[in-house]
Amino acid sequence: MRGFVLAGVASVACACVAPGRDSFEDVTSRFQYVVPLEIGKTWSNGQDRLTITEIRGTRPRVEVGGHYLVRGTYTLKSADAGEVFFHVKGPSNAGTDLDLQHLSVHRGSATFAVVHGMSKDGNCHVSLFTTKGSDFVPAADVYFGSGGNVLRDSK
Question: Could you say which of 10, 25, 87, 143 is the most buried, measured as most Cβ atoms within 10 Å of its Cβ?
């Protein structure tokens, strides 16, 4: 699945690459920073799991203006199908969902990679939803970020 998402990133940027450069290398090199993994609030329905294993970004920390590639693993046991979704929760959730910020998944365990830009203040999180008919039902959620923008469990 990781290849699918990264190939999608490369195809989007092909028209913007200088002649003679490999478009895939050009696009993936933009995620030059390995962002320190700061995990915040997490939630799971008990059967399904979501884990973030790596964050790469166009900036060295999670902040407004940066774009981030999040890799991880999921386990989906409670349904045959679902979706992994990278979102920024903030005061205004208005905006367009991008193709690369969500990925269809199937029962079992596998790796994933999703991409999104942080265009507003808020809290980044990756969610796993199950599909029940035409509805999406929350199954797991992991918040992450840098410093003060990480949503943490209240103590």
Answer: 143
